[in-house]
Give the backbone structure.
Amino acid sequence: MKKEPLKIALPPSPEEKALSPYDIVICRAGTTGCPHAIINPKTIADKIETLLDELGLGGHIKAKAMGKLLYHMKFKIALAGCPNACSQPQIKAFGISGQAKPIVTDAPCIECMKCIEICKEEGAVRIIGARPVFDYNLCVLCDDCAEACPTESIVIEKKGARVMARGKLGRHPKLADVLKELSNEDEVYESLKKVVEEYMQEALRL
């Protein structure tokens, strides 16, 4: 029996991207891989594009463009695998970044200080009374401390995504609002639905 040739999914060409009503950017965690990745943005990006079509956003944008789709008309999305947010979700109409919440366990801490050495957020983790202590107001939920801990005194309680929306550049730049922390995939899609519905309604009022 003759085998069918292996089909490899190629990234969209510049011409295809120019015609799309969406501008979806992912960090390298979803393409070449990244050691900091907490979530895989590529699988989410694929589902998001399908969801946008189901919601009718593509047709809505193309109708508004009246045959000439300019970049500023596109619905812009950025997905990042970790809090470093290399794809800049903070300035997009919709964006996510991976998160992992560290917690302290009953496993004895040997005070090796590796968690403090690796943490880039000064004061986010300290050793007090031979136990790690977190200041979650400073912690960015990156999972570095849990990865560095040799005794599992620190582990990850939950992984998910920070969901952001309504960010933009241009004449009046604005950082995105944080809608939800540590979201699972279903919660990401539910948040996106609400943002798209709001976006389309706002466009109809203009």
